[in-house]
Amino acid sequence: LGRKINSALADLNKAPVIDEQVLDGMLKDICGALLASDVNVKLVQRLRTNIKAAVNVQEAGAGINKKRLVQKTVMDELCNLVDPGAEPYKPTKGRANVIMMVGLQGAGKTTTCTKLAYHYQRKGWKTALVCSDTFRAGAFDQLKQNATKAKIPYYGSYTETDPVAIAMEGVDKFKAEKFDIIIVDTSGRHKQESELFEEMKQIAAGIEPDSTIFVMDGTIGQAADGQARAFKEAADFGSIIITKMDGHAKGGGAISAVAATQSPIVFIGTGEHLHDLDRFEARPFVRKMLGMGDLSDFVEKVQDLKLDQNKTLMKNLESGQYSLRDMYEQFQQISKMGPLSKLMGSIPGMPADMMAGSEEEGTKRLKRMMCIMDSMNDTELDSDSTPFYTQPTRVVRVARGSGTSVHEVEEILSQYKRFQGMVKTMGGKDGLFKNMPTDP
Ligand code: GDP
Ligand code: MG
C-alpha cells in the first residue's frame, strides 16, 4: 500500500503542472491502493471527495505549493480517518479501575490483557488480571502463564463454569486488595453468536467496567467494519486495540473499525511478546501504512528540532551529500536540544551503546565525539572521510590531538559511514525527502 501511494504522490512531483486531470489520476491510484488494503469502500469514496474539496487546483498557488497542499491534504485526511477525536478512557489514581476486554476468539485478547497489564505495571500502577473465559479449554492456563512471566497477580478458576461469577469474584478480590487496575479477559467464542454477546452483557452488568476495550485482529480486512459495529452495539466499548500489526498486516481494517464506531484506537499489538504493545498515534500509524517508516520519523524529528534552520545541512541531506562536518553539526544541535535518548532511539544505525545509560551519559558520549572531531582540520571535516583512509596518519594525528585513541577515532569514522549510508537512502532522486508530505 505504502509504495503505491508513495509512487502516486511521487508522480505528482514529476507532473509539470497540476491540473484537474493530474489530481484525478493521482486520487485514482491512491484510492485503488486503499481499497487493496481493505479500507472500507464508502470511506475511500469519502476520502476522495474530501481531498477534492480541500484541494481546489484552480485556486491553489503554483508549483511546489500546490504539490505540498495535495500531499498534506492526503496525509491529513488519512489521519482523520484513524482519529475520531474522542478522548479514550484514562485510569485514575486512588481507586480501582476495571477494564474489560472483548473481541472474537483468536483476536489476541488474552495476549493483549497481559501486555496492557504489564504496560501499566511498569508505569507504577498496581495491576491484576482476571480470567473469565470458561469457554476455551486451557484459557486460564494461558493467562496464568502470561501473567506469571510478567509477574502480575491473576485470578481464575478450573472448576467454576460461570464466567460472570468468576469475573465478579476476581474483581471483588482485587478491589479489596486495593489494586489500581483490574483487567478482565473474556471469552471470544468462534463467531459473533448471540450467546457470546449475551455473556458479554452479563459480565459487564456484573463487574460494571470503567472501560471496555474491543480487541480486533488487524489482519481481518473488509470484515472489520461489520465486526466492529456488532461489538459496539453489544458491548458499547470505549476504545479499540488492534493486534497483529507486525509483519505485513494491512492498516485498512483499523481504519474501517474506527470509522464504523467512532471509537479511538488506544494501542496496537506488534508481536506475540510482552513488550509488543505500542501506544497508538494517528500520524506515525499513517506514515507506517504509507511505507514511510523509521527514516522519515527521524527526518521529522530532525525538522522538529529546527535543524532545518541550518539550510546547508538540509540541502546536503536532500542531495544525499553528507560530510563529517554535517555529522558534527548534527551532534552539536542534538546535544543542545535533548531529550537525547528519545531522539537517539529514532536514529537508524545508531549503535545501542550510544543510547545506553542515562541521558547524562549519552550527552557526555556525544560531547566526547565532538571533542575528538574538534581535532580534525577543515579538509577532513568537509570530506566524506576518504582522507582518513588514504592517509591513515591523519587518524593518529586526530587521536593524539584529542588525547584519545586510534580506536575511538575509527569508531567515529564508522559511525559516520552509517549515517552517510542512511542519508544516501533518504536523499537523491527517489529518496524519501521527495515523497514526504511536508507540513507547512
Ligand atoms: P484470544 O482468543 O482473543 O484471547 O487471542 P489470544 O490472545 O489467545 O491470541 C491468539 C493468537 O494471536 C496467539 O497465538 C497470539 O500469540 C497471537 N497474537 C496476539 N497478538 C498478537 C500480535 O500483536 N502480533 C502477533 N504476531 N500475534 C499476536
Ligand atoms: Mg483468550
From TrEMBL:
GO terms for cellular component: cytosol; endoplasmic reticulum; signal recognition particle, endoplasmic reticulum targeting. Keywords: Cytoplasm, Endoplasmic reticulum, GTP-binding, Hydrolase, Nucleotide-binding, Ribonucleoprotein, RNA-binding, Signal recognition particle. Residues 264-277 form the SRP54-type proteins GTP-binding domain. GO terms for biological process: SRP-dependent cotranslational protein targeting to membrane, translocation. It is found in: Cytoplasm; Endoplasmic reticulum. InterPro entries: AAA+_ATPase, P-loop_NTPase, Signal_recog_part_SRP54_M_sf, Signal_recog_particl_SRP54_hlx, Signal_recog_particle_SRP54_M, SRP54, SRP54_euk, SRP54_GTPase_dom. CDD domains: SRP54_G (cd17875). One of its GO terms (molecular function) is GTP binding. Pfam families: SRP54 (PF00448), SRP54_N (PF02881), SRP_SPB (PF02978). It catalyses: GTP + H2O = GDP + phosphate + H(+). It comes from the Eukaryota. Its main location: cytoplasm. Belongs to the GTP-binding SRP family. SRP54 subfamily. The M domain binds the 7SL RNA and the signal sequence of presecretory proteins. The NG domain, also named G domain, is a special guanosine triphosphatase (GTPase) domain, which binds GTP and forms a guanosine 5'-triphosphate (GTP)-dependent complex with a homologous NG domain in the SRP receptor subunit srp101. The two NG domains undergo cooperative rearrangements upon their assembly, which culminate in the reciprocal activation of the GTPase activity of one another. SRP receptor compaction upon binding with cargo-loaded SRP and GTPase rearrangement drive SRP-mediated cotranslational protein translocation into the ER. Fungal signal recognition particle consists of a 7S RNA molecule (scR1) and at least six protein subunits: srp72, srp68, srp54, sec65, srp21 and srp14. Signal-recognition-particle (SRP) assembly has a crucial role in targeting secretory proteins to the rough endoplasmic reticulum (ER) membrane. SRP is required for the cotranslational protein translocation for ER import and preferentially recognizes strongly hydrophobic signal sequences. It is involved in targeting the nascent chain-ribosome (RNC) complex to the ER and is proposed to participate in the arrest of nascent chain elongation during membrane targeting. SRP54 binds to the signal sequence of presecretory protein when they emerge from the ribosomes. This is Signal recognition particle 54 kDa protein.
